[in-house]
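ENTRY TYPE: protein
CONTENTS: sequence, structure tokens:
***
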Amino acid sequence: MANPDHLALLLGEVTSWNASRTQIQAFRPDLMSADLGGADLTEANLREANLREANLAEADLRGANLRWADLNETDLGRAYLSLVDFTRADLRGANLRGADLAGTILTHADLRGADLSEAN
């Protein structure tokens, strides 16, 4: 389950979230199984976040940093993922069906078993 303090901070305001990530270098967000469906997370720093089994369907993550994030079995269906950095992210079994991946960085991302059908 997601850490409720991490979830509240992220949903409060992305600029405050990003400032916290800058100030506390060892901060590793625990957002496992969080319901973030439809959330506006534009340009959020989610580097190394645990988003395993989270709901990010239809979320706006344009320009977000998801380097080294754990997105195993995460629902990213119809999410706005343009310009997202997924470098070395774990996307095994993730649902990316119908997602907008224009300009997305997937360098060394693990996409085994991911559903990319109808994705742009």
User: Anything to note?
Assistant: Residues 14-23 form the longest helix (10 residues). The chain has a mean pLDDT of 96. The radius of gyration is 13 Å. Residues 22 and 45 are 9 Å apart (CA to CA).
